[in-house]
Amino acid sequence: MLDRIDHIGVATEDLDAxxxxxxxxxxxxxxxxxxxxxxxxxxVLLDVGEGHVxxxxxxxxxxxxxxxxxxNGPGLHHVAYAVSDIERALGLFKESGIELxxxxxxxxxxxxxxAFLHPRSTGGVxxxxxxxxxxx
Length: 136
Ligand code: CO
Description:
By secondary structure, this protein is an alpha+beta fold. The chain is 22% helix and 38% strand. It is built from 3 helices and 8 strands. It has an 8-stranded mixed beta sheet. Cobalt (II) ion (CO) is lined by residues 7, 9, 54, 78, 80, 128.
């Protein structure tokens, strides 16, 4: 049901510094940059093969990523798996007892549809599932 790892999300307070690392030093091309108000982040997607790294800078301290940074500092934030039918995936996960943060998909970066699973029920890993928009 999970097709592949779509991206890993990395929380940062300084997008320019993170881009210096991921784009210039590690050589990943920037694919997309977008402010996602509903998630309280400015996000940059970089290509690495079929997958991506998603850099996340919070728009404020009172946002999920802002709170994460205050608690944990910068670093790995979540792992995202691609699915072709997000409603079906959420239904199956719920049936199997996984705690959902989002019962309904919401709009993510590049018009994808996304939902998060609670790290309490995924071994401490904040897990995102993403149904990419056509063409991505
Ligand atoms: Co993500």
